[in-house]
Specification:
Layout lengths: L1 E4 L6 H9 L7 E5 L5 E2 L5 E2 L7 E9 L6 H16 L6 E4 L3 E4 L2 E13 L2 E10 L15 H5 L5 H14 L2 H4 L3 H10 L7 E6 L2 E10 L5 E4 L5 E4 L5 E3 L1
Parallel strand pairs: 1-2
Antiparallel strand pairs: 2-5, 3-4, 5-9, 6-7, 7-8, 8-9, 10-11, 10-14, 11-12, 12-13
Helix pairs in contact: 2-4, 2-6
Length: 238
């Protein structure tokens, strides 16, 4: 694995996306502790304090079809979650791919792709809050330091994270979709618990039952009424 550190960069995903269109090899990683214009899932913005956190993007050459990226997303989220469980407790995956610990967001994931010579180039972007201790206007954000009670070495965390991803990629290569989906649902945030949701501007009470093979979230409402949702069609209030 080739790991490139950049002192400061607008977006590791954007940089690696350009590199992937040229000569970058699979499992090339670009990371920084100062990302100035980070992008999150579905157009969200990822804000990070300088030299306190990790923004890293990994290029993976894949033979996956676009319809199989749902499983890649689920695998990545669970893989990151499992790695962090060595440092802190009470970690879950909030649909579709945020990582929460003690009900606070500590990781955001952004996956981008493009086709090249019959290969699907996957850019896996990860924003991990490590040593930041203040999150103005972000009431649901936290970090490893806040939850673990100490500061961490950024390069040590990065090395462990990337090693963990590469060592477990065989699950994706073998297309063990059933195992991936089962693991994802096992760590699904607030599964089988009564929660509040905002749907079309209205607040409703429901229970998350599962995420299916298409990545849809299934929520049970009153009288056993089950409905499925795509991202942005429903918002959990927690």
């Amino acid at each position: 694995m080739e790991i490139l550190r950049l002192k400061s960069i607008p977006s590791t995903n954007s940089a690696l996306l350009e590199m992937s269109k040229k000569s970058a090899k699979s499992w090339t990683a670009v990371w920084t502790s100062h990302q100035t214009s980070g992008r999150g899932y579905a157009g969200n913005v990822w804000v990070s304090q300088k030299d306190k956190n990790i923004a890293v993007s990994v290029l993976i050459d894949s033979e996956l079809g676009y319809d199989e990226l749902i499983y890649f997303n689920q695998w990545a989220a669970v893989c990151i979650r499992n790695f962090l469980s060595d440092y802190i407790s009470d970690i879950y995956v909030k649909w579709p791919n945020d990582i929460l610990a003690h009900n606070k967001k500590i990781v955001g994931v952004l996956i981008e792709t493009h086709k090249s010579h019959n290969s699907l180039k996957i850019i896996l972007g990860i924003g991990l809050n490590v040593n930041q201790k203040e999150f103005p206007d972000l009431t649901h954000a936290s970090s490893l330091a806040l939850l673990g009670g100490k500061d961490f070495d950024l390069e040590e965390i990065l090395s462990g994270l990337l090693t963990n991803l590469k060592n477990h990629y065989w699950v994706v290569e073998n297309k063990n979709w059933k195992t991936i989906l089962e693991d994802y649902n096992h760590y699904l945030f607030r599964r089988d618990q009564i929660s509040l949701f905002k749907i079309n501007g209205e607040i409703q009470q429901g229970i998350i039952r599962k995420v299916d093979e298409k990545g849809l979230l299934w929520v049970e409402f009153e009288k056993g009424n089950l409905q499925s949702f795509q991202h942005k069609e429903i918002e959990m209030i927690y």
